[in-house]
Amino acid sequence: MSAVTIEDLVKTKPLVEELETVTIRFAGDSGDGMQVTGSQFTSTSAIIGNDISTLPDFPAEIRAPAGSLPGVSGYQLNFSSREIRTPGDEPQVLVAMNPAALKTNLPDLEQSGILVVNTDEFNANNLRKAGYQSNPIEDGSLSGYRLFKVPITSNTLKALEGSALPFKQQDRCKNFYALGLMYWLYDRPMEPTLKWVNEKFGAKPEVAAANIQVLKAGFNYADTTELFTTHYRVGKAKIKPGKYRNITGNEATAIGFITASQLAGRPLFYGSYPITPASDILHELSKHKNFGVKTFQAEDEIAAIGSAIGASFAGHIGLTGTSGPGVALKSEAIGLAVMTELPLVIIDVQRGGPSTGLPTKTEQADLLQAMFGRNSECPVGIVAPSTPGDCFIMAIEAVRLATKYMSPVFYLSDGYIANGSEPWEIPSIDSLPEMKVHFRTEVEGFFPYLRDEKTLARPWAIPGTPGLEHRIGGIEKQNITGNVNYDPENHDFMVRLRAEKIERMQQDIPDIEVFGEKTGKVLVLGWGSTHGAITTAVEQLQEQGQSVSSAHLRYLNPFPKNLGDILKSFETVIIPELNLGQLAMLVRAKFLVDAVSFSQVKGKPFKVSSLVHKIKEYLISNE
Amino acid sequence: MSAVTIEDLVKTKPLVEELETVTIRFAGDSGDGMQVTGSQFTSTSAIIGNDISTLPDFPAEIRAPAGSLPGVSGYQLNFSSREIRTPGDEPQVLVAMNPAALKTNLPDLEQSGILVVNTDEFNANNLRKAGYQSNPIEDGSLSGYRLFKVPITSNTLKALEGSALPFKQQDRCKNFYALGLMYWLYDRPMEPTLKWVNEKFGAKPEVAAANIQVLKAGFNYADTTELFTTHYRVGKAKIKPGKYRNITGNEATAIGFITASQLAGRPLFYGSYPITPASDILHELSKHKNFGVKTFQAEDEIAAIGSAIGASFAGHIGLTGTSGPGVALKSEAIGLAVMTELPLVIIDVQRGGPSTGLPTKTEQADLLQAMFGRNSECPVGIVAPSTPGDCFIMAIEAVRLATKYMSPVFYLSDGYIANGSEPWEIPSIDSLPEMKVHFRTEVEGFFPYLRDEKTLARPWAIPGTPGLEHRIGGIEKQNITGNVNYDPENHDFMVRLRAEKIERMQQDIPDIEVFGEKTGKVLVLGWGSTHGAITTAVEQLQEQGQSVSSAHLRYLNPFPKNLGDILKSFETVIIPELNLGQLAMLVRAKFLVDAVSFSQVKGKPFKVSSLVHKIKEYLISNE
Amino acid sequence: MSENAHPTNGTNGANGTAATVKLTRKDFVTDQEVRWCPGCGDYSILAQVQKVMPELGLSKEKIVFISGIGCSSRFPYYMNTYGFHTIHGRAPAIATGVKAANPDLQVWVITGDGDALSIGGNHFIHALRRNIDLKIVLFNNRIYGLTKGQYSPTSEQGKKNKSAPMGTIDYPINPLSMAFAAEATFVGRSMDTEPKHLSAMVERLAHHKGSGVLEVYQNCNIFNDGTFKNFSERDVKDDRMLYLEHGKPLLFGKNKDKGIRLNGVTPEVVSISERGGENGVTVDDLLVHNENSPEPNLSYIIGRMQHPEYPVPMGVFRSVSKPTYEDMLGDQISSAIATKGAGSLEKLINSGETWMIN
Amino acid sequence: MSENAHPTNGTNGANGTAATVKLTRKDFVTDQEVRWCPGCGDYSILAQVQKVMPELGLSKEKIVFISGIGCSSRFPYYMNTYGFHTIHGRAPAIATGVKAANPDLQVWVITGDGDALSIGGNHFIHALRRNIDLKIVLFNNRIYGLTKGQYSPTSEQGKKNKSAPMGTIDYPINPLSMAFAAEATFVGRSMDTEPKHLSAMVERLAHHKGSGVLEVYQNCNIFNDGTFKNFSERDVKDDRMLYLEHGKPLLFGKNKDKGIRLNGVTPEVVSISERGGENGVTVDDLLVHNENSPEPNLSYIIGRMQHPEYPVPMGVFRSVSKPTYEDMLGDQISSAIATKGAGSLEKLINSGETWMIN
Ligand SMILES: Cc1ncc(C[n+]2csc(CCOP(=O)(O)OP(=O)(O)O)c2C)c(N)n1
Ligand SMILES: Cc1ncc(C[n+]2csc(CCOP(=O)(O)OP(=O)(O)O)c2C)c(N)n1
Ligand code: SF4
Ligand code: SF4
Ligand SMILES: [Mg+2]
Ligand SMILES: [Mg+2]
Question: Is B180 a pocket residue for ligand 2 (Cβ < 6 Å)?
Fold first, then answer.
C-alpha cells in the first residue's frame, strides 16, 4: 500500500480555534464498534501529522449483555501538535453511545468537558441496566459539562433511508455517525477513513456505501446545524521526519521477532497457548508462514515452551509467549532451558493478577516471577520494551542476547503496551544489528559444554550435524564435557558459572540514559510501559525548572553497567511501578540505596498528574 | 513399644580411653546395607545417652552396578558426650566395604584417621570398577591412615558355616560384621541391635539368627584378635532429661502435620505426587489412615495441589508436598489459593537444582521461588524448620498460621533435614498450642470476604453449611461481598490487603532469639538446615572469647518483628546459605544493611570449619 | 429412560439426601447478571440445569459446582449453590479434593472443550478412570470462546480461525473416545438446542454414582456459529441424529426407516421396513443399544459415529456401576480404624524406638 | 511381517536417508556406564534398540532420542545419537518441537508408565492425535521405579506398595486404549523378555511414518518383580500370550489349538481343531487380525483383552497412514510462499497504513 502524504489530504478549511493537545474518549457497548471508531480517528490524526497515543479499554467479558455496565467498551486517544507519550489523564471530550457508557466513563471526563450523548439509547430499559434512577440527560445532573444531545441512532437510520441493508446492519453504522461529528469538531479530513472503508468492505459495496453515507451525515450534521459553536484545530506536531505507521505493541512484537529470525538467518518457531493479552501475537505470527515462521498452538503452556525448547535444540529461534499465569506453568521448563543452556525467548505480556486476576487489565507485577520463579538458582536475562514501537527493538535484542549467550531471555511486555498504539517510524533494514547465529560443525575438539571465553556460551551443535552427537538434559552437567555429574565442587562451580554468564550480558547491553541533568535532587527510575507517563511528568517538572531527571530500564537482568553510578548521583530515587515495588526491591538489595517505591496496582497506567504530585513531595522535602 | 533405660543396657566393661566426640562413616555398595548399619549404630549410641547427629548419603541412581563409583552409599554419624548439632565435618573413622567406597570417601577421612577395609572385595574386578590402577591396601598409598585390613566377607561366611541360608543372604549379613567391629571399638552394647533384629526378622528366625551370629562374630573378632590396640568410650552427654526417640525430618514432618490436624480438629488431606526427597512424607502419611488422614497420589503436582485446595475448600486441612521442580508446577494454583484466601500448606523439601539438578542432594535455593514464584503480587507465609526434630513444631506452626489467616503457607525443608536424624525429645501433648479451627455457620450478616479485624482473615464457610452458599474463584474479588470485581480502586485495595494479611502474621510469630550477646561485632544469621553448623561454629568462637552471636530464622515471611533491631546491633551481619544469597537479598532490600552473603552450593551442608574460617575474617577485619 | 435410570437411588448421601422444603428453579438462580453473548448456547444449558436441580430433591448447600476457565466456566456464578471458578483445566483435580474430603456433597464439574481436553486433558482422564463421583458437563463448542476464537482440540481439521488462518492441521479429539478409554462409568451426549433431551441427560448424570461425563454440543454464535447445524437443524436433524435408548435398536429418520447395523465391528447405515428394506433388512437386524454392558466396546464404536458418514448419536452411551474412589478411600480408613483403632496422638509421637534420659 | 511393513519406504528423509557407511551396533553405544539395577528389563530394551539401529540405514546424526524422567528415561545417555533427557512427562512436547523444526530427523521418545500416563498423559495424547512422526517407546513396568516404588497409573488395583500400604484404589489405565482414543496411526506391544519379537516391533515402529507408540512390558526386579510373569513365564506363555499377525486369525496355545472369536463385539476364547473343536469351532470362525483397518474399533477391542480372561496380545495392533503434522505444516509454509512470495522484511515492516512526515 502506497504512503499517503498530507498534501493529498488536508483540505483548506475555514479558520478555527487552535489547540495544542486534545484527549477524546469514545465509549459505548461492545457491539457499538468503539474500537474501530477510535482507531480511525487515530490514524487520520496521525496521517495529518499529529502526534498520538491511544488506550483501548475492553470489557473482560466476551460480550456482556447489550447495554450492561460490564459490556462497555472504550477507546481513548490523545492527539497533539507537540510530542506526547501518553493517552492523556482525563479526556476533554467524551462520546457516550448509551447510558452504561456514560455511567462508567463520566467520572474520568474533565470538569466542563465536552460530552456527546446518543439520546436515542437513553430509554427506560437501558437506564435501568446502567443503574440510573432518573435520566441524567434530563435531570440536570450533567450541568457540570458541555452536554451535546444527538439522536445518533435515528439520524443514522434516517441517513440510510432506502438502503437495502437489514436494520441490524444499518444500526451498526452509528459509530461512524459519531466519528463524523468528531471529525468536524476537530477538523479532520474524511478521506483516510473513506479509503479504509472502501478497502475493508470492497467485497460488500452496499456496506461500504452505508458507512460512508453515515460518516458524512454526521460530519454535515455538525457542520449545518450549529450544534457546536466553535470547532477546533490541532496542528502538525514537530515529528522527526520519516515514514511512519501506527502500531500496537503486540504487532511490533510479532514483527520484531520475525525480523530477529531473519537477521539471525534461522526460522522462527513460536510455541504458544492462547491467553489474553498475548493471543494476538500468535494470531499475527500465524499470518506470516511465508517467512518460514512455524506457529504451534500447543495443548497447554508447558507443551508450548517444551516445543520451543525442542525447536531451539534443533536450531530454530525458539520462542514461547503467554501472560503471567502461563509463565507460572512454564517455570519448570525454563529451568530445563537454563540447565541445558539453550537459547529461548519467553514473552510475558503481563496482566492484572494474582491468579486469573484482571485478565484484560495491565500490570507490571511479573518482574520477580521472571527473576526468581523457578526452583533453585536459575538465572535468565530479562528485557522489557517501554512503548509499543520499542517492542520491535527489544524483540530483536531478546533474540540477540539469547542466541549469543545460549540462555533463556524473558521479554516483559504488558497489556497496556500490547494493545496501546503509537506512530512508529519505520526503521531502515540496514540500521538493524548484525546477528547471524553460528552453529558448531567442527568435530575436532568439540565438547557440548565448551565455553566461549567472552560470553561463557556453550556451542550450539544441532542434531543433524555429523560427528557432534551428544546428549543434554536437566541433571547437573560437568563443565566442558557436559556429562551428568554429581560432584559437589562441579555443582558449585556450575551454579556460579550460570550466574556469571547472565552477568556477562552486561558487556552487550547499552548504558542506561538519563533524561535531564545527570545529577540532581530526584531521579525517577522506571521500566516497561510507564515510560510515557514518567517522561511526560518529569518533562513538565523540568519545564518548571525543577531538579528532576528520569531514567528508564529496558534491560532488567542484568542491569546496565552504569546504573549504580547514576543512582548515586541523585538525592532521592523514586521508582514508580504498577506493582508493589518489585524493581525497587531489586535496586535496594543490589545498590543499598533507599529508593522510594511509588506503586499503583489498579490495572491502569499511571496518570501523569499523580506522578507529578508524587515527585513534588520529594522536591519540596529536599529543599 | 516400652522404653529401654540405659541401666538395662550398659554392661560393666574393662576401662577404656575416653573420647568426647567421634565421627564415623560407613561406606559400601548400595547393596551392602550401609544405611541399616549406620542407623543401628545411631540408635544404640542414642540409647546409651550420647548426643548424636547423622548424615545419610544415597546415590542418585536407583541401584548403579555393584561395585561402581556411583553405586556407593554412605552413612555418617557423629556421637558425643556433649551437645552436638552436626554430623561432623571429617570422619575420624571410615569403614570401606569395597574399593569404590574407599575411592569416593577417603578424601573426607581426617589425617591418620582409622580406616577399616573389607579386604575380600579388593579384587581386580572391583579395583577396575573403582578406577584403581594398583591395589591401595597393598601399594602403601594409605600410609597416612591407621589402616585395618579385615576379610569381612569371608569371616562372615565362616561365621555362618552350616547355616541354611542361601549364599546371597549370608553375604548380605556382612554389614553386621562391620557393625560388630565398631561396637567393640567404641564400646557399644549389642542388646539394642539384637532386640531390633529379633523384631524385624521375627518372621524369618534363621535370618535373625544369622545376623546376630555375624554381629557377635565381628564383635568377638575385634575383642579376641588384638586387631585394635585400644578401644574407646564416649560417655553420656548432659542431655535434657526426658523421653527421646530418634527421628528424621520427613518422619517429624509427617507426624507434625497429623498432630496439627488433630489439634485443629479437622482431618488431614495430603495431595501429592512422588518426588525425591519428599516422597517419604507421602509414604509415612499413607500409613496413618486410622487418623482419618486421606492421602491422594495425584497424576501430577498440579492435580496434587488442586486436590488439596479442593479439600481445604471443603473444610479439611489441605496439604500438598513436593520438591523444587514440583513447586514450580504448583505456582499457578498457589495463586488461586491466595486469591480465594483458603488455608493451604505447601511442603517444599528442597533439593539441588536448577531443573532436575541433583535430586538426592540438599540445597536451600527455593526461598525466592516460595516468595515470588507466581504471577503478580501473590504473597504467602513461609516457615522453615531448622533441624529434623524442629519439623514437628514448624509443621504445626504452618497449619496454625494457614488456618488462622486463611492463607497458603510454605514449609521449606530440605534434603539434609529430611533424611538426617537426631534424638528428639517427645513433647507432651498438652504442651502443644490450642488451635481449633472455626467454621462460619451464622447465616446472619455472612459475606464470603468479610474480614476479621485482627487477622484480616475471611470466614471459612464450607460446602454443606445451610444458607452460606457462595461462589469463589481466581478473578479479582470485591472485598466483603467476594463478588467478581474489575474496579481499579478495589483491585489496588485488595492487592494491598492480601499483602497486609501476611504482614499481620507477625503478631502471631515469636521474636527471633539471639544465641550469645545481643550486640557485638558479628551476627551470623541463618535459616533452615544450616542451624546446626552455624550454631556449632559460633559456639566454638564464643568459647574462644570472640564477639560473635547467631540468630536463626524459622519464620521467613513475614520476618519476626525484632529482626531489624537485632541486625542493627552488630557491626557485621553474615548470612551463610546453601544458595547464592537469597535470604541475604531479602534482608538487604528490607533493612538496607550491608549483609555479607556466604554461599556454598555443593549439595552438602556447611562444614563447621569453613564457617569458623569465614566468620573469623570479619572478626579480624573489625579489630 | 432405561430401567436403571436411578441405579443408586437413596444409597448415596450425595445423590439422595432429601431437601427439607421442596425447592424451585428460582432457588438456584443467583443475583449475578449472566454474562454470555446474547444467543450463546450456554444460556440453554444453564436453564436446563437450573430446571433439573429441584427435581433432585437435594438441598442447595449439598451441591457444589466447580469449573475451570472459559465462557462455559463462568457457570458457577449463576448457580445458587456452593461454587468454585478455578483455573484453566484444573477443575477435575479440585473437584476430586472436594469430593474426597466430603463424599456427602454432590460435586459437578463444568468445563469446555479447551478446558477439559486441551490444558485439562490429563485431569479429565484421571478423574474418570478413578471413578470418583464427579458429574462432568463438557460444553463442546469446538472453539476457544473466551479467548476469542482460536481452534480447540475438537475443532474440525481445516477450519480457518484466529490462530490458524490457513486452517487447522490438528486432527480433532473425540471426547467420548477419551472417556471410554478411561473406562468412565457414565458417558452421555446432548445438545443446547434440545432442551428436553438435555434436561433428561442432566438428570441421568445427576443420579449416576461414579465419574460421569455429559458432552453437550453448544453453539458459540460469535466465534463458531452453526458448527453443528449441518446435522442439527430442524429440517435435517431427524435424518442426521440418532437418539440412543437402552435396549432399543438404533433407529433414526423422520419415519424411523433407517437404522444402524454392525458389519463386523463397523457400523453401517441401513434402511429398513416391515417387509425388509433394500436387501430385506428389518428392525431385527439392527444393533441394539446396551448402556450397561460392562465392556465399553460397543459404546466406543457408537461413540465414533460422526456426521456425515453416520447419524450423530445422542443420549446415554454407557452407564455401569463400579466402586467409587471416595467409597474405597472411606473403606480403607474404616478398616484402618477397625484394625489399629482410632489414631492416638500419644501413641503416634511415642512410636518407634524410644529411651529415657534422666 | 505384514505386506505393508514399510509403508513409507524412502518417501521420508527421516525414515529413509541412507548412512554413508554401514554402521554396527557398537556405533550406537556411548562411553557412559549403564546405570540400571542389575537384572532390570531396561537392559534388554536398550540392547534391542541398539541392535535395530544399524538396520535402519540412517546415519547417527539424523537420530534423536528424547526422554522424560524415570529409570527408563536415562536411555538417551546410552545411545550414541543426539539425545535429550528432559523433564518429567514433557518429552512428547519437546520432541514435537524438534520434529516440527527439522522433519529430516528421526525422533524417538523414550518414556515410562508414570512419565507417559501420569504427569505426561496429556502430552502423550496430543502428540498421538496430531500424528506427528514420533516413535514413542513406553516402558511399562507398572511402577514408579526411579522414585523407589510408588504405584503408577498402570499398577494393578489392590497392589500394596510404598504409597498405598493398604493397596492401590485407582483403576489402572490401559495405555493402548489411550492410544486408540487418540487415533494413533501405529500401536504395538512387546516385552523385555522377548528379544526377537521386541526387535521386530522396534523396527516396525522405526519404519512407520506418523505418531506411533510401542508399549513394552518391562520388569522392574527391584520394586515390582514378576508383575508380568503369571502370563509371560516360559511354561505358561504359549497359553497366555497371543501374537498378532496381520491377516492371520487370532490363534494361540502350545499347539495353536485355541483362538479368539467375536461374540457381537466381545472377544471370547474358543478351542479349535481341524474337525472343529468343542461345539465344532474351526479356524475359519476366528477373528482375523487387520492392522490396517482405518477404524481402530477392532484394535481397541483386542487391546482391551487382559490376563486372566484372555491371552495377552502382543504385536502390531494398528498401522495406518495419514498425513503427518510436520508434512501439513510444511505444506502450509510452501503454499504461503507460493501465494504471497517468500517473506520480505521490507514489505513486512512497511505493511499497513503508512505516512510520511517531512
Ligand atoms: C493457564 C491459562 N492459560 C490460558 C488461559 C486463557 N484461556 C482462558 S479460557 C481458554 C480456552 C477456552 O476455551 P474452552 O475451554 O473451550 O471454553 P469456552 O470459552 O469455549 O466455553 C483459554 C485458552 C488461561 N486463562 N489460563
Ligand atoms: C516434576 C517432577 N515430578 C516428580 C518427579 C519425580 N519422579 C521422577 S521419575 C518419576 C516416575 C517414574 O516412573 P516411570 O515414569 O514409570 O519411570 P520408571 O522409573 O518406572 O522407568 C517421578 C515421580 C520429577 N522428577 N519431576
Ligand atoms: S464467545 Fe461464544 S461461547 Fe463465549 S459467551 Fe460468546 S457465544 Fe458463548
Ligand atoms: S528400579 Fe526397577 S526399573 Fe529402575 S533400574 Fe531398578 S529395576 Fe530397573
Ligand atoms: Mg470451547
Ligand atoms: Mg514405571
Answer: no
